[in-house]
């Protein structure tokens, strides 16, 4: 019993005429008749009543028709899935990202991927900050990630933008009503930061700017993600250096103030392993290049 036998059976059952069914399948009528006889022999029961005037289904044929159609639908679906996989329209892409910049970028990319290639699944791994993300790409733990150049050898990047940083502070802070502050004015403040182990570029930028202003920051507490960090600011534990895109997160008691030295704090990019041959990744990168145009530095 082969799939072609079911295809032949369905064609004859729908046409109730061997000649028309043969034309529909683009096969010779004797070959079609042979396939039907082979199927009947395999099943041990006649499927059609044949006379010189008409063809009709037997009770066994009636019972087989819907299961045969179901098999045909499943086989057609399997063919579509196989072709789509070959063309990169199905598959899984593991994506690492951290911080509010990652959320804003990935939300746009994920929407477009879902719309254009619903068979491609983006497996999102939040709290994967730039340093860890670059290593995960290198070690094949991720397929795509938000990174900040320079990156390890073998990693290609698509530069998205130069990221700015600002200061999040309690709304009743003495500097909260300022149009802008300088890092030098914050030397006696308690800071909230991401852990050093995350490889966070925001933390690296904060440390660099403080050093350039002539002091080392007093880090009162560390937070694993932007929402926890801003909640601690709202609780008046301290202030925090955050990316400009954090402004869309509205938390009671938190005010954002531009930082004089905050322009072009670090470069934000999508990174992937050059040797990754995944066709699903290639499709995602095609969309990324369209919806997130590369900027020249």
How many helices? 9
Structural class by sheet pairing and helices: alpha/beta
Task: Report the count of strand segments.
Answer: 12
Q: What is the end-to-end distance?
A: 64 Å
Helix percent reads 40-55%
General shape: rod-shaped
The helix-strand sequence is: HHHEEHEHEHEEEEHEHEEEH
Tell me about the biggest sheet?
5 strands, mixed
Biggest sheet, spatial arrangement of strands: 4-3-5-12-6
Instruction: Name the average pLDDT.
Output: 90
Low-confidence stretches: none
As a percent range, the share of strand residues is 15-25%
Fold and architecture overview:
The structure is a single chain. The chain has helices at 3-15, 18-25, 29-43, 59-86, 99-116, 130-138, 201-212, 226-234, 279-291, and strands at residues 48-50, 55-57, 90-96, 119-125, 144-147, 155-163, 165-170, 190-193, 218-222, 240-243, 254-258, 266-273. With 297 residues, it is of the alpha/beta class. Helix 1 (3-15) packs across helix 2 (18-25) and helix 2 crosses helix 3 (29-43). The radius of gyration is 31 Å and the shape is rod-shaped. The N and C termini lie far apart (64 Å). The mean pLDDT is 90.
